[in-house]
Amino acid sequence: MEGGRGSALSRGERERCKEPSGKGTQAMPVTKEQVMEALRQCYDPEIPVNIVDLGLIYEVQTEEEGKVRVKMTLTSQGCPAAMSIPDQVKARVAAIEEVKDVNVDVVWEPAWNPGLISENGRKQLGLEV
Questions:
Q1: Confidence of residue 25 (pLDDT cuts 50, 70, 90)
Q2: Which H or E run includes 46?
Q3: CATH 3.30.300.130: does it fit domain 31-125?
Q4: Would you list the domain boundaries of the chain?
C-alpha cells in the first residue's frame, strides 16, 4: 500500500492468508471424513492393511474447537505395536490443519476379531469370500 510495493503486497498476502484459516476460532471445523482419511494412512506394521479397513477404529468424534477423539482397539492386548499404532494415529490426526487437540483411547471391549475387517481389507489380505 505504501512505498516498496513488492514487500507490502507480500505482507498483505500473508495477513489475508492468516485471517481466514489462522487464528479465527470458527474458520473451518475438522470433519470426521478428514480424520478417517488421515487414519487410512496408519498401518499395523505386521499387517499390510490400514487400521480403518482392519476394523481397529471404533469411533471418531470431532468438535468445532478442533478437538478430536478417536476410540480404537488393537488386534490383541499383546500386540507388539501396542504403543506405536496409537502414537501414529495421534500424529496423523494432529497433522490436519484444523485439529488443535487429539485424544486417542485404546479400548478392549468389544474385542477385535477378523469379522471387523472391511471388504476392501479382506481383498487386500486375500480373504475374499
A1: very low
A2: none
A3: yes
A4: 1-27, 31-125
